[in-house]
């Protein structure tokens, strides 16, 4: 058996980051079923026509449904979501991927876009919670 | 005999596909990105392969919900561009070379890569954006494409070392195929980016450029990089760079770097692109 190269707890040590593990994937399963349903135009139309009724077709938690209704992508990540699924909600709304991502960043869309044009967010101070580095 | 003659790596940012599809490649924002691909668009005209083996990751378009294979090969005769939430990209259908794909699948399993075979799937921006960047806007893609999808999203993802060995196994499989085919290997995704949480927008140009410096001639320096190091240094989505290692390994010992390009940003992402010619 090969040794682990790092403790699994290290994956929880990255600032502002949720690593998408199998367990989180399971937590997000029904949320993600909803997201993938938005890959069909008729489903996008039905969702936008009555969001709550559409969400009630899925076995998502109430918290997940509320976070979808609020378009709180950061909260959805905390509730097991992964951006590759969640971006389908943003696309349904006609948001760019950058706008969707910026909504989690603690910055306005314009501030975020400016940060990206200037070279993005530095890794300095963003590598480890424990080390503060 | 079939042989791998060249390798291409490129980021596969969906917004790049949207810029192409919406005719915005000359916009101030996008022009410097597309200038980085002018070399390959010219070069490919005289170097169009028979088949591209295209290493990419599916973005919850065909995989990742019910089935999360670590390595999977598209085995249908054809693949449509996926509807990722805004309609299908207006790009050609992708056609497979199922004879070569069958040979590679068989040989990879013999070589202890227990590949998942996918008989029905659509292909998303991870595969179609690189095709657009290299071949431009065309009526038909000028070659066959064998899609190989790598799980880079749900942990545990394969290690860089495992992706390297996959490339070596692909190289050996192609070499033992009797038909005289010109094959290219493409690795896609990266470079640094993070699409989630309060660390979104992470870019690490120093890491990315070191990766580009070493990939051609000292790739063994890159193989041991752990999943954790990718996450810390280049972001949760930057780990896609492990697919570049598969591309590089499939080219064998020596390569000639024909082109290199790096630019920040395209949307949320650092764009990297290389073209390598195989020496052996």
What does this structure look like?
The complex is a heterodimer of chains A (133) and B (280). Chain A has 133 residues and is mostly helical. Chain A has nine helices and no strands. Chain A starts with 21 loop residues before the first helix and ends in a 16-residue tail after the last helix. Chain B has one domain (3-278): 3-Layer(aba) Sandwich (Protocatechuate 4,5-dioxygenase, Chain B). Chain B has nine helices and ten strands. Chain B has an eight-stranded mixed beta sheet, with helices on both faces. In chain B, strands 4-5 form a two-stranded antiparallel sheet.
By CATH, the architecture of chain B is named: 3-Layer(aba) Sandwich
In percent terms, what proportion of residues of chain B is strand? 15-25%
Strand order of the largest sheet of chain B: 6-3-7-2-8-1-10-9
CATH architecture of one domain in chain A: Orthogonal Bundle
Query: Any idea of the CATH class of one domain in chain A?
Result: Mainly Alpha
State the major sheet of chain A: none
Q: Radius of gyration of chain B, Cα only, in angstroms?
A: 17 Å
Summarize the entry for a quick read.
The complex is a heterodimer of chains A (133) and B (280). Chain A is mainly alpha-helical and 133 residues long.
Structural features:
heterodimer; A: 133 residues; mainly alpha; Protocatechuate 4,5-dioxygenase, Chain A; 9 helices; B: 280 residues; alpha/beta; Protocatechuate 4,5-dioxygenase, Chain B; 8-stranded mixed beta sheet; two-stranded antiparallel ribbon; globular
Q: Can you lay out the helices and strands and say which pair or pack?
A:
The complex is a heterodimer of chains A (133) and B (280).
Chain A (H helix, E strand, L loop, with lengths): L21 H6 L1 H9 L3 H9 L1 H5 L6 H8 L3 H6 L4 H10 L4 H6 L6 H9 L16
Chain B lengths: L2 E8 L3 H8 L9 H5 L2 H9 L4 E6 L14 E4 L3 E2 L14 E2 L2 H13 L5 E3 L6 H11 L8 E7 L9 H16 L6 E7 L16 H11 L11 H8 L7 H9 L4 E12 L2 E10 L2
Parallel strand pairs in B: 1-8, 2-7, 2-8, 3-6
Antiparallel strand pairs in B: 1-10, 3-7, 4-5, 9-10
Helix pairs in contact in B: 1-5, 4-6, 6-9
């Amino acid at each position: 058996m090969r040794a682990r190269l790092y403790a699994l707890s290290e994956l929880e040590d990255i600032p502002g980051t949720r690593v998408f593990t199998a367990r989180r994937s399971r937590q997000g399963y029904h949320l993600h079923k909803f997201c993938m349903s938005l890959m069909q135009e008729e489903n996008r139309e039905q969702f936008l026509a009555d969001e709550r009724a559409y969400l009630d077709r899925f076995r998502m938690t109430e918290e997940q449904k509320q976070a979808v209704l609020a378009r709180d992508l950061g909260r959805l990540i905390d509730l097991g979501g992964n951006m590759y699924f969640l971006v389908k909600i943003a696309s349904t709304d006609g948001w760019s991927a950058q706008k969707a991502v910026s909504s989690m960043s603690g910055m306005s869309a314009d501030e975020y876009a400016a940060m990206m044009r200037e070279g993005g967010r530095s890794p300095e101070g963003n590598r480890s919670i424990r080390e503060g580095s | 005999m079939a042989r791998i003659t060249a390798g291409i790596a490129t980021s596969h940012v969906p917004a790049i596909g949207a810029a192409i599809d919406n005719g915005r490649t000359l916009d101030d924002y996008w022009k410097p990105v597309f200038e980085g691909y002018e070399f390959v668009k010219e070069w490919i005209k005289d170097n169009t392969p028979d088949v591209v083996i295209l290493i990419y990751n599916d973005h919850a378009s065909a995989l990742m919900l019910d089935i999360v294979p670590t390595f999977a090969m598209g085995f249908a005769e054809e693949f449509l561009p996926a509807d990722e939430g805004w309609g299908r990209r207006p790009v050609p259908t992708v056609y497979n070379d199922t004879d070569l794909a069958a040979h590679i699948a068989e040989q990879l399993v013999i070589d202890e890569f227990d590949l998942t075979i996918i008989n029905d799937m659509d292909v998303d921006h991870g595969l179609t954006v690189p095709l657009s960047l290299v071949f431009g806007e065309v009526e038909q893609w000028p070659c066959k494409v064998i899609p190989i999808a790598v799980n880079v999203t749900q942990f545990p993802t394969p290690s860089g070392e495992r992706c390297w060995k996959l490339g070596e196994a692909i190289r050996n499989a192609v070499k033992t195929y009797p038909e005289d085919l010109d094959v290219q290997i493409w690795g896609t995704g990266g470079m640094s980016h993070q699409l989630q949480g309060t660390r979104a927008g992470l870019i690490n140009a120093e890491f990315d450029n070191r990766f580009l410096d070493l990939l051609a001639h000292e790739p063994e320096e890159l193989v041991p990089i752990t999943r954790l190091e990718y996450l810390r240094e280049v972001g949760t989505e930057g780990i896609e760079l492990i697919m570049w290692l598969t591309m590089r390994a499939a080219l064998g010992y020596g390569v000639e770097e024909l082109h290199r390009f790096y630019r920040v940003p395209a949307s949320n992402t650092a764009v990297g692109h290389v073209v390598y010619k195989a020496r052996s």
